[in-house]
Amino acid sequence: MEERIIFFDTTLRDGEQSPGASMNSAEKLRIAKQLERLGVDVMEAGFPASSPGDFESVQMIAGKVRNVEVTALARTAKDDIDQAWAAVREAAHPRIHTFIATSDLHLKYKLNMSRDEVVSEAVESVKYARSLCDSVEFSTEDGTRSDRDFLCRIFEAVIAAGATTINLPDTVGYITPEEFTKLIAYVREHTPNIHQAVMSVHCHNDLGLATANTLAGVEAGARQVEVTMNGIGERAGNTSLEEVAMNLFTHKDQMSFTTGINTREIYPSSRLVSMITGIVVQPNKAIVGANAFAHEAGIHQDGVLKNPLTYEIMRPDTVGLSSNRMVLGKHSGRHAFDDKLRQMGYELSGEELNSLFGKFKQLADKRKEILEEDIEALVAEEILRIPDVYELLYLNVVSGTTAVPTATVRLKIRDEEAQLAGFGVGPIDATFNTIVKMIGSDAKLMRFSVNAITGGMDAQGEVTARLQENGAVVLGKGTDSDIITASAKHLSTD
Ligand SMILES: [Zn+2]
Fold first, then answer.
1. How far is the centre of ligand 1, averaged over its atoms, from the C-alpha of 61 (Å)?
2. Contacts of 358 (CB under 8 A, 6+ apart)
3. Less crowded by CB within 10 Å, the N or C end of the chain?
4. CA of 62 to the centre of ligand 1 (A)
5. For the whole model, what pTM was predicted?
6. pLDDT beyond 70 at 492
7. What pLDDT does residue 490 have?
8. Distance of CA 230 to the CA centre of its chain
């Protein structure tokens, strides 16, 4: 019988630790629902002790996700574990995930604890967590830089205390695949009760080896992989879910495992995460990049037309990217539109559906065909957005090689309408300056990016921008077929 690889997704916890990726509860829940459709086995919904907001979103997700184990992170402290448990206890399948650092470097400079103290604290915490919850995971932070005999000692102790999963993280993204294979093999050989727990690996991509290391871990006996969508996470990110999933799928002959992943949900999940976090996927990113299935060289194009297998090791539709993604047009009715939304996993209220259908009709008048990405963008624009304090009523921008870029903006600010014109070095700068003046803000634009969501000249543009005001950094998103309008939409939201 084929063994199963458990996909532990930490997009909502480690992924959220990407600089600037913070999400609100509604956005996290939307991702959680998509991860459920994608078929992850475990989702780490957050770190409840880190903030009240995190606690609330973990609790909300635990109450609404039914088919996935929901876990929360906790340091080895009673209070952290209590909070993690309070947040996940309503889940259909709860798990507590507790951790402590085990490398001498962390023991000396961070924890100021001896190895004996670390073992006894880990054991106490796992015992306590097990008294609350049947599924308990224990992680050795900075595991790959820890003494290997100490790892065996602490794993043996926590398994005896009731840990059901033990995780060996490469927290700093330092190890190589060969060394990782050796380390895991050593740990498995020298921890007498190792077979009473599932072994897990958690890698970071600082040297670009996260996927390779994770697969090396699987080869050495790990049966849980900790991953994030698009590989987002601290610094250079975590292991990317889609890369591990598609490696297992494509190399079934060498790595014969089953997984719960529905590969066709990979691309929609990737889009949702990038849209919500504002972290754009690089075009050459494996599996989910815009160019991942684009063939540029004539010889390649010719070959693919004759037989896709000449240059494609996997089919785009396997990851949910079908070549014919035209789904709806201007003659599609409300019912077809609602059906499509449901297929895509969006269940909207009657009122939401009405307002979205109106926007869909407007877009369908401008474009011949509406793709799933367009619909996603509409949902993000109309439904997921926080109620606007400002509404953009009118925008006229004059720009060109001889004109001074000028923007005329009319905004509804709460219930009052206001209008102003302003200049800038370019059309977006002019729009930004004018809006900032109108709303009396001293915000500074820190980063600005425009991304075409769909192909072609009439693609919808997605703008993400990071602003700083009074020391607070905020992220905004706007979508429109006109990128300047998209920019203004986002600017007038914050
Ligand atoms: Zn991590």
1. 21
2. none
3. N
4. 21
5. 0.78
6. no
7. 62
8. 6
